[in-house]
Write a structure and sequence with these properties.
Blueprint (H helix, E strand, L loop, with lengths): L2 H36 L15 H11 L10 H16 L11 E3 L2 E3 L9 H22 L3 H32 L4 H6 L12 H14 L11 H4 L9 H26 L8 H5 L4 H27 L7 H32 L1
Antiparallel strand pairs: 1-2
Length: 345
């Protein structure tokens, strides 16, 4: 095996893992600042200029806190739950194309860990596995409220995965590929899929809120009914892993939405820009554009959290099964008819 290939992939995995952790860490800071802005408060402002060191202080506090494992908990599974949640959150970045290829010393280096031809299926598989971390943690805690929360989370994720999968089918009918890199390539310039699949994007985005347990779909952590939810019994960095996993999931969901529907690293007049700069600089500009789209979605996640109250659980399930799934099926039918007519004439 080519040692340079191994070094490139290891470096890219390390960089993506580090970026995911840093974005998750500072998403906690951004969350509190956005909440403060919407509620006419200052937010964190003591640790460093404008409170910029607050995430570091919070992380240090998490590491230094006493770690408590309930005496009647299933200890091995109690430890596996947060790790599994964190692992499933991080590995979703592997198939996302973060930019065009770089040329380093005559060697083409793709800004993607792996371009598998079933990248979309891989993402859905990772999303499906993520619920196991929540379910194991709630069950292993030996706390009835944690278990009820875990059951809620599992049923919620399963319900909204159906609508999310159906919303993607219409997109796949258009693109004829499961490769994320090919889907991005087809959106070159202004040909973003959101212009052709607006309903599919809305369904996918709503399901992303439910999959990441973000408000108004944060029923697994409903304090008035279930205390702190599935991680009630957790402390120290085990709790931190669950909290980090939520923010990494939000980052990955934003990256997937930007990739599937908003052109990924493509942007208007990119060919004109590429004609005035070197290929590597053009590729890095595309990566910056992709991250700008991701941060826009992360801000939207936070804006919704501090604007809209949470649903009741029956409302949440009715929305998934009685509204989003029929809409997604109708979108598939309409898309199929339009494609058949266009191909015919």
């Amino acid at each position: 095996m080519d040692i340079n290939f191994v070094i490139e992939k290891f470096a890219l995995v390390t960089i993506l893992f580090s970026i995911s952790l840093v974005i998750a860490m500072y998403s906690t800071y951004a969350e509190r600042k956005v909440a403060a802005f919407l509620q006419d408060r200052l937010g964190p402002d003591r640790a460093g200029p404008f409170g910029i060191l607050q995430p570091l202080a919070d992380g240090l506090k998490m590491f230094m806190k006493e770690e408590i494992i309930p005496s009647n908990a299933s200890k091995w599974l109690f430890m596996v739950g947060p790790g599994l949640a964190m692992l499933c959150a991080c590995i979703g970045t592997a198939v996302i194309p973060w930019g065009q290829d770089l040329n380093i010393n005559g060697r083409v280096v793709p800004l993607q860990v792996t371009d598998i031809n079933v990248g979309v299926l891989y993402l859905f598989g990772v999303v499906s596995l993520g619920v196991y971390g929540v379910m194991i943690g709630g069950w292993a805690s030996n706390n009835k409220y944690s278990l009820l929360s875990a059951i809620r989370a599992a049923s919620q994720n399963i319900s909204y995965e159906v609508a999310m999968g159906l919303s993607i089918i219409a997109l796949l009918l258009m693109t004829n590929t499961l490769s994320l890199r090919e889907i991005v390539a087809q959106q070159h310039g202004w040909h973003w899929n959101v212009l052709y699949q607006p309903l599919g994007f809305i369904i996918f985005m709503v399901c992303s809120f439910a999959e990441t347990n973000r408000a108004p779909f944060d029923l697994p952590e409903c304090e008035t009914e279930l205390i702190g939810g599935y991680h009630t019994e957790y402390s120290s960095m085990k709790l931190g892993f669950y909290l980090f996993a939520e923010y990494i999931n939000m980052f990955v969901s934003s990256a997937v939405m930007a990739t599937l529907y908003f052109g990924g690293y493509n942007y208007p007049w990119m060919d004109t820009v590429a004609g005035h700069v070197s290929p590597n600089v053009a590729a890095l500009i595309g990566t910056v554009v992709l991250f700008a789209k991701i941060f826009m979605f992360i801000f939207f996640f936070m804006w919704v959290r501090w604007t809209i109250p949470r649903f009741r659980y029956d409302q949440l399930m009715n929305l998934g099964w009685k509204a989003l799934i029929p809409l997604a099926i109708a979108n598939i039918i309409v898309t199929g008819i339009v494609i058949a007519v266009v191909n015919k004439f």
